[in-house]
Amino acid sequence: MYRVLIVDDEEPVLDSYEFMLKGTGDFALAGKARTGFEALKLIYELEPDLVFMDINIPGLDGLEVITEVRKKFVPMVFILSTAYERFDLAQRAIPLGVFAYLVKPVSKKTFLGALDEVRAALKNRVPDQAPQTEDEAARQFLQKTIWKEISAEDWEGYRERFSLPSDKGIVFMAELDQDTEIWCGKIAEQLSYRHRCRWDVILNRGFFLVFEELPRDTLEGRLLGIFREIKLPPGICCYGIGEPRPGPELYQSCNGALRELQNKLNSTDMKQRERQKIVQLRHKIGIAGAEEVKKLFKSLWEEVFSSGDFTLAKMKMCALFLFLIDDCTGSYGAHSELEPPFYPAEEILALEDMAEWELWADDAFGKLLFQATLHRSGNFPLPLGKAIEYIHGHFAEGLQLSAAAEAAQVSSAYLSRLFSEHLKTNFVDYLTELRIEQAEKLILEGRMNIKEVAFAVGYQDPNYFSKIFRKTTGVLPTVYAAQGRVSSAQEGGYETDKL
């Protein structure tokens, strides 16, 4: 039986991990810790085989705990869990031999999958005194050695031991949404036909080292060819490539590959957040309060303009305003004779700086709010109005479509059609957005913890609430709360790095 220690400062996470451990057969909970110092104490007392370690815990952070523990318990398996991915955290975690890196909320499927991998690793664990096999030495070389500067003398030793054909190498990392081991094995097989390389899976990502002075663009072209050759499904792989470096400086290629991968993942998250805010804005305009909708609109354009080129941001805003004009007036609907209140492309593209954009956007969005109120509220059938009123009064309950339909005195099927025709959404999505909107307000008020907020807006499972909150807003509720505290400190004139 393998002993497991869970380290996290959130009770819902501790409870969730404990629940998922039950019934796994050969894993048993040995203890729980809520701070870094408590984690150190229990690790030395219990000597667990596996530790689920949150990074952001009071006292010593998770990585500091692992650094200290590694001095004595080298074979101990650590799985990091954190609310968000960051380049600097992954950069620190890899040389410590962290087994996996899970982003909260962790689904049961992901949790059990990680346990399966740990189980296989623990079964193959050898005593410390046993000599390293060639594969074990190569694995340690990839996982730990090349993430830091290597002396010229040591590098020559590695070249001789592993029969390395070149004094230079280049690193790339790949993150896949599914079957990481399988796809990485196929990539390595194809790559090895032309190049000498080593590969491993580190922190749930494929890590490849090509022993050759290969230009970065050449390697990328060959990788794309390999993806086509092995029929890798589009959209499931994100990769980063470093620059070719001499052996003692391979850590720079490692860091470059990890940094590019992280930037690509962050860009994907940003696009997803943009899309979610656009969907929310289109659903709310003309229905929700004017100040709430204005705040959502400003939040959207601030993120768009801060994340890229000014001209590209203006083009995105042109597309957004075309959607909003049609939502608010119907003037771009089929066979419509209504004239748009303005033509966004001509007006937006002529703007030269942010000051001009803010003035224009404030005026244009105000016009659309007025049009939306007239168009949408005047065209709602009475049953839909009754249903919306009922939902807003009972969203904190275990609300079902049938209950809203009964309040509106129509069938569930008819009410579902009204949502689709007039609100361009469905009952579940409308209810979810309303609940998350209320949750955001409660979190920023700071009077409730995350578990209490989940209950207050109608979710009985805090972990499910966290998952839905992240899907809707792009961040976990704990991160959203932390961002809110930072914003409040900035507005109050405090130094945020001291919070």
From TrEMBL:
Domain HTH araC/xylS-type: 385-483
Pfam families: HTH_18, Response_reg
InterPro entries: CheY-like_superfamily, Homeodomain-like_sf, HTH_AraC, HTH_AraC-typ_CS, Sig_transdc_resp-reg_receiver, Tscrpt_reg_AraC-type_HTH
Domain annotation Response regulatory: ranges: 3-119
Claim: Kinase is one of the keywords in the record: no
Positions of post-translational 4-aspartylphosphate modification: 54
Any one GO molecular-function label of the UniProt entry: DNA-binding transcription factor activity
Keyword annotations: DNA-binding, Phosphoprotein, Transcription, Transcription regulation
Gene3D superfamilies documented for this protein: 3.40.50.2300, Homeodomain-like
GO biological process: phosphorelay signal transduction system
Keyword check for Transcription: yes
CDD domains per the UniProt record, alphabetical: REC_YesN-like
Superkingdom of source: Bacteria
Name of the protein this chain belongs to: Two-component response regulator
Native organism: Treponema primitia (strain ATCC BAA-887 / DSM 12427 / ZAS-2)
Upper lineage: Bacteria, Pseudomonadati, Spirochaetota, Spirochaetia, Spirochaetales
